[in-house]
Amino acid sequence: MRSLLTALVLLTLTACTGLPERVSPVTGFQLDRYLGTWYEVARLDHRFERGMTHVTATYALRDDGGVSVRNRGFSTLDKEWKEAEGRAYFVGSPTEGHLKVSFFGPFYGSYVVFGLDQRDYRYAFISGNSTDALWLLARTPQISDDVKQRFIADAKARGFATEQLIWVTHEQSPEKASQP
């Protein structure tokens, strides 16, 4: 019985760091170029980001070889800035864009870079372990229509519900964003 319980726990934990069926991480990934601040341009809705605008993610090296993750955004529901600190580690090779990230103790979820401007690292397409989790990140709050259309087409071809994308506000001040 104990072996079965251990196997189920391990299966559950590895399932959270798996890949959606039609998603593969980019190869030739360079963490040092990926570090820094990224703006969240689009996402599928999640309860932990519901009502958030002005969302950014900042990545930095940790002393243990991992990556510190700081997500920050303005909650239009609570009318205040929110921040979450986490940590991430590569699932396999550090040249493959597949990390596991944790904001809650020992529990990790997939962070899969499946699209990336590998020349300039200006934008990235990110998924979680299922097609319920999708983000478009960029080094600037706005992106070109070409990148936007490429993201939508690429994500749709992989089974994501792109018609449900939320386009994150960055244009106005958070104080104005919090007004109805």
Strand arrangement, major sheet: 1-2-3-4-5-6-7-8
Distance between the termini: 55 Å
- Listing every helix as H and every strand as E from the N terminus to the C terminus, the arrangement reads HHEEEEEEEEHEH
Q: How would a crystallographer describe the biggest sheet? A: 8 strands, antiparallel, barrel
Helical residue percent band:
10-25%
Number of strands: 9
Poorly predicted regions = 1-15
Report the total helices.
Answer: 4
Beta-strand content estimate: 35-45%
Look at the helices and sheets and give the structural class: alpha+beta
Shape, principal axes of CA atoms:
globular
Mean pLDDT metric: 89
Roughly how many Å is the radius of gyration? 17 Å
Describe this structure in words.
This protein is α+β, with helices and mostly antiparallel strands and 180 residues long. Helix content is 19%, strand content 37%. It has helices at residues 2-15, 31-34, 145-157, 174-177, and strands spanning 36-43, 52-61, 67-75, 80-90, 98-104, 107-116, 123-127, 134-138, 166-167. An eight-stranded antiparallel β-barrel has the order 1-2-3-4-5-6-7-8. It is globular. The termini are far apart.
Task: Give a quick precis of the structure.
The chain is of the alpha+beta class and 180 residues long. Helices cover 19% and strands 37% of the residues. The termini are far apart.
